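Review this today:
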Amino acid sequence: MTEPEKIILPQPDAAFAWVRSPAGWGLVCRPLEPFARHVFTSRSWLLGLALEADGWQEVAEAVGSDPAGLLRIRQVHGADVLVHLPGRPPLPAVPADIIVGADAAMAMAIQTADCVPLLIADRRTGAVAAAHAGWRGTALGVAAAAVNAMTTALGSRPPDLLAAVGPSIGPCCYQVGAEVRERFVHEGFQADELARWFATAPSQLPANPPMVGLSGRLTARGLFLDLWSATSDQLAAAGVPRDQVFVAELCTASHDNLFCSYRRDGKAAGRLAAVIRSSRSEV
């Protein structure tokens, strides 16, 4: 029995399902499957085992591509967008945290180790997007920026979009300082939004036990940030219907045998990938 088979898989939201590949376990969002091949990887993939490992080939193969057909970016915790259109040569990795495109020949991938991996598919046009957002990117509105880029550059309509929020650090474990909330205030978010996204105590989530060592890291003035709610709210504000936003509700910091987590493991943490490729041959 291989090591991945020994893992007891936590139950994600009902819109998601675990799948096995030669690289190990991955997570897919069922509503996106008819429109885009995609996967959120786990720790057993090469990318998750060691930072120096070249794991992108198996990420590309998971969506029927190869490394030459995989678009990546140099993530910088911002909200800039790389737009790729069919027939144009792929650009080298540029500083950005969002990729949008309408080219079925190309897959798009981002990497995370606690930050939110967001995949979006347009069920009308076949356009897709991949985005990365930690607290800085969320404060800058990455989710809305991805929707706006698809709308302006690719002709998407928000009501046609389906969005999947993959595993990331949850409100059960993500303690931040007051300065993080102040950054959200500075970016113009309203009091009712902040009340939904920030709490003074960790959420109790049955599928996500507290991160190992969390009790020893708690501070009296700390807040707990809910990136899942913030991302969902920002997608809804950008026009994506709430019943078309799907959140895996699995915390990377909670499951040390399954996910990479920078907050839990520090600089030794590997990386998870989120990759998407349109299924529409006419894109």
